[in-house]
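Dear support,

I submitted the protein below through the web form. The confirmation email said the job was done, but the results page showed an empty box. After a refresh the structure appeared. I'm attaching both so you can tell me whether what I see now is the final result or a partial one.
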Amino acid sequence: MGRLRDAIEAGRQAVAARELAQATRAQALLALGLDTPSLVAAAEAHARVAGGQHGRAVLIADHLPAQLVSAPDLIFEHLPPLADLLSAVSPAAADEHRLRRLALILGRWAVTECLWTGGEAEDLVRMAMARAGRDRPAVAFRPNDTRAPVRTAHR
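What the results page shows now:
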């Protein structure tokens, strides 16, 4: 009887661990340089898709529109605009800061997949994928295909 009880308990623990792993998975959208309407549309589409498939939707953007401030199904993380960093540091230092910040965000939320919108976001993803060893995020990167219109902001 003890073996049966132990087997049942082991099964319960395995199911609980699997459910916890599924609940903590996240998909991120890296959206940099977008104007506000494009960012809102992309973020809302991302929250609908990622929330259903991956448990958590993480938006990594250079600004947070007021419409998204209280979105209950979206986690917002800020990545400073490249232009803002370039006013204070060299291009190499700005790139390094943004790559480290991106890696921290992806790790913090246990992101398994990261989509990007193009332009500045694509440049950052290409730099992240070119890194080697521990410095390369262990995340699947792919272009965003939610078909939301994407327009870059004119700063």
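Response: this is the final, complete result; the empty box was a page-load delay. Helices lie at 2-23, 36-54, 82-86, 91-108, 120-130.
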